[in-house]
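During the first year of the project, the team set up a workflow for recording each protein of interest as an amino acid sequence followed immediately by a discrete structure-token representation. This format lets reviewers and collaborators read both layers of information side by side without switching files. As required by the reporting guidelines, we include two representative entries from the current panel. The first entry is reproduced here exactly as it appears in our internal archive.
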Amino acid sequence: MFMKRSWIGLVFVAGIAVAAGGCGPDGSGTGTGDGGTGADGSSVGCAAGVDTDGDGIDNATECMLGLDPAKFDTDGDGASDGRERMYGKICVAAAGGTQMRPPMACTMDSECSGGTCKGLDPLVADSDGDGVPDGQEDRLLDGMIDTATGETDPRLTDTDGDGVTDGMGGLDICRPSGLATVTQVSLQGGSTQVGHDPAWGTGTPVMGGNGTGVVLDDAATNAAGAVYSVLSVGADSVAEATRIEGLLTAALGTGTTAVLVGQVSMTHEMQPARTSTYRVARATSASALRDATVMPFSGVAAPAGAAIGAGSEFIVELTTVRRANGPAMGRTDVAIVVSLAADFNDTAKKTSIRSSDLINTTGIAESGKGLGVGCNVFRATQSAVADFLWTVDTSGSMGDDQLRLANAATRFFTQMQAAGVDFRVAVIQAGSTTLNIDNPGLTFISGGDAAGPRKLCEQVTSTSLNMPCPQSPGETFNPYPFSGGQEEPTAAAVLAHDILKRNAASPNMDRKFRTGAKVVTFHVTDEPGSNDFTRYFDMTNAPDNMMPWGTVYNATSLANIIGYFQRNQILTFGLVPVNATACTALAVTDLPRCVIEGNGGAVIPIATALQAEVDAAVAKIVLAVAGATSQFMLTRSPITSTIKVKVRGMEVPRSRMNGFDYDAGSRSIIFFGTTFRPMMGDEVVISYRVWEGSIG
């Protein structure tokens, strides 16, 4: 019968490739011989009570059944003779269209009306004739077929009854011949290994007094990468990440600015990680910038090699993992990729994908861990839906920053649409008292509105600052009015969310969040967080309908503010000030950044962000939102370079233009473009490699 079981990790049973053979009914190996030949060339005979091959069937019985007593798996299908002989039987209908699902267990044909009682045949590698060896269909050979992890019934030609035989559907990517490969490299002298895409070629090891690592180049995508293992110095993961980020930016040198910093996550080994992205604007090459990191992170000079990715603008992605336990405890993993900005931002190229696969830490593991296999099977049942709240500072110093957001409006809409997200955006002034959504009347901008980019451009700019939207310079729109100040985006986000959440019964869709929508807040200000805290989070000024967080900014009040976003499962991003101090230092000026980062989001540093930084950050925010709204969340953390996807039996390319990609933050598959996007009811099959022993 069909049953579901908890999925912990799947390892394919290794079949023993042997030639077909067997014993005849007369007790001979071929019908006339000596009962089979052992590995040493000796005759094993057909004696009763002796199980030469250890398959659970004694030699005499094997000879009687025509099996080979010298072969554990006579038909070479990956299932032992004993397991196949004892495998449960089910009623298999003569006509596929009448097959009962789940099938009825049986012991003889007479129990099966209009069909036969069928088990597995140890003399036939493919008992049901669907083109898949028995041992690759039910991989644990226990009769409990878990279709959600890619298993099929070796007794049924079409397990799920979709009219496509098991051998012709999408599950072939979950079988040994269909899985992606991964190159494993152990870092010299360390306790860490890297599993990377073979496209990176053969890495060059580096080892010195500062650390050990491997240097990787992919000339096809103009990307240069490196993974290091260094001794931890920082007192915690944030302090260590801040230290590593300082070493990186110093090594990169002139022209380096932050794009999106401080996004925290947990690795597949449950170690804290932090990812930041930078832009370098000067004439050099991706490999030269990467080589500049070799000395500070290893202590030796960079190895010689050909220049990769010459240009004048680059994107650098960095992830830091401070290992707090395990055999590599006391060390920090540092993953870096440098790419040409033009290639990184080009969705027709795989540059950003190649970078993400290396810096998202899914390919980094403790030494000694082996590779396992994951397979998830989904049925498309829902759309990706998101509602955005942009809370925008409208003070006099914000004109140029508003313009950068306005200029990114088209990019934002285009990329959200490409990711298949049904989204809306409400742009609100960063006030802090009571938001009146009925007067003059809050309106969400629909992601499907052809004029949406222009409307977002108009609403994010303030005409009072003489900074009208570049797309319509005569416009008179502003962010939706919100009294009580104009520099408190965190307060505005909390208050606006609370009102829209409480208004769920309203028939007016502009007065509430949509059912099932993921809410995303985007905070914009160049002012310190003391405005937010003293004007709204002060006990004496808290509005009646909200619980205040205290009159003193400390660890408790910060945790309580973050708690609001966490409890309501809100994603947070922002264009806000970023200071060098860690959030644990509890400087109230850092409140917007610390709330965003504490909730797992990331920020664009407003003091240094030019248009290029804002544009680059938009793409990363879109990926995170699309991942959070995807129904295709994997059950385990994959080595992302090994992911394969099939929809409607078609293999989907890895592409942010027309294919799929992966968001590590949500552990989800995202479909870009329309060719391969699943339609309601479609089967989606996803296979990937995992690190055995990891629990994330």
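The second entry, processed by the same pipeline in the following quarter, appears below.
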Amino acid sequence: MSSTHAHTEALLDELRRLCPGRVSTTPPDRVAYARDLWPRGLIGIAAGEVAPHPPDAVVWPTSTREVSEIVRACARAGTPIVPFGAGSGVCGGALPLHGGIVVDLKRMRRMVALDAPAGAATFEAGILGDHLEHELNRRGYTMGHFPSSIMCSTFGGWLAARSAGQLSTRYGKIEDMCRALTFVDGTGEIHELESGGTPDLVQLVLGSEGTLGLITQATCTIHPLPETRLYRGWSFPRVAAGCEAMRRLLQRGLRPAVVRLYDELDSFLNRRGGHAQESVPPVSVGTALEDWLAMLRPSGRAGDWKRRAISVALARPDLVNRVAGALLPYAQSGCLLVLGFEGERTLAEAEARAASVELERAGGTDLGPGPGERWLKNRYAISFRMSKVFDAGAFVDTMEVAASWDRLLDLYTAVRQAISPMAFIMAHFSHAYTDGCSIYFTFAARGGSRGEAERKYDAIWRAGLAAVSRVGATISHHHGVGLSKAPFMPEEHGEAMAIYRALKDVLDPSQVMNPGKMGL
């Protein structure tokens, strides 16, 4: 037996003592925890590489004390630790690049406390988002945090990546909700942190993606379930007009639960029946491409025409984007804006009336409740319908960035120009605040062989994030950084990266916590 193997076996024996019956080294478990949903990794999986970065073992703790002991054991052994929620991340943040131990927190899934007078609830980090919301709903409350991945992401994952829910304009992002958290650093020490201090250590831990330690539970603000929900659709002639309307709403002091503007292409591709009232929000790039290409469909039928057409179109994204840019100004379909208010009935109705006045002044056309209500009903669909593009031998990904209002349109133009020659691209604007807004770009392309696809994928991200940096925007709003955005961390944060590295040296002196992520 080699010394390295003996060293690993000694650590595994210690972990089995700490967590009896909850340590696995079986091939199925190691394969299952070898990846997350980073689309670049999915390219490799489609080519047959099912477990690019298998961990040495997976362990399932059931308490903060067990997490502390696991970290102490791994730190003594110098063995990497990768925290794991539900594996739904799209940036490679949960990949065990250097093997080591994956710590899956999903057995830590209790509601610890509900303090109704304080408007707060405490949950363990491993609870799935959908289960968390159901626990609150049963008691008449909501956290107001609804990411598209709510059914397959955990509370701890939200905290680790500074997640944003679809209703963040009203309720805030997860870092706005978090009041306190329990955190195990890279030495195994347990910290009880409260927000609002100087410095605010809670904010230093949130978004660190497991590079400083593991969050085991947290206390967040909760709200009574809304008495009413008022959702409807509006149409604006162009992106610029819609963005200006959003800015005016937010800076007037209105707080819609949802304000989402789809660009001309995104809106046009998803019209149904040619009637504005039948507009529905986008469901996937694959569906959008089917609709777009149906206009060019030759006579006659072919069994898998749609799949082949998508594949052909993704091979020439520059042409598709140019044709769209040339035709859409004459399509008169406009840009769809989904707007929703919720809460106490009288206040929600008053805000909705004030918003209608403001949107009409900004040149909007009221489409009635249909588009808004359909968005609310189908708002999680996109998470389950992205496979069409991969089925066509291509890849699809999203790039969520953000900027202040004065830079927002420059950001939109710059990223589109950077990516359009290489990928089919569309976008929507959401997560709007008084000072700025996020843009959520969706792009798809075909790369041929695995190597060609990975090179094209990397080129798209380099070009897109370089454009973001040139405009002076931020490279991530809510998906995190992981591996996909890590190369641009020093460019965006400059000397602040030295502070981050110093913080890691203090909290994780053995450098075992999720190594290689976040630009470290």
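For the second entry, the following points were noted during internal review. Residues 450-471 form the longest helix (22 residues). Residues 177 and 498 are 28 Å apart (CA to CA). Both points are flagged for discussion at the upcoming steering committee meeting.
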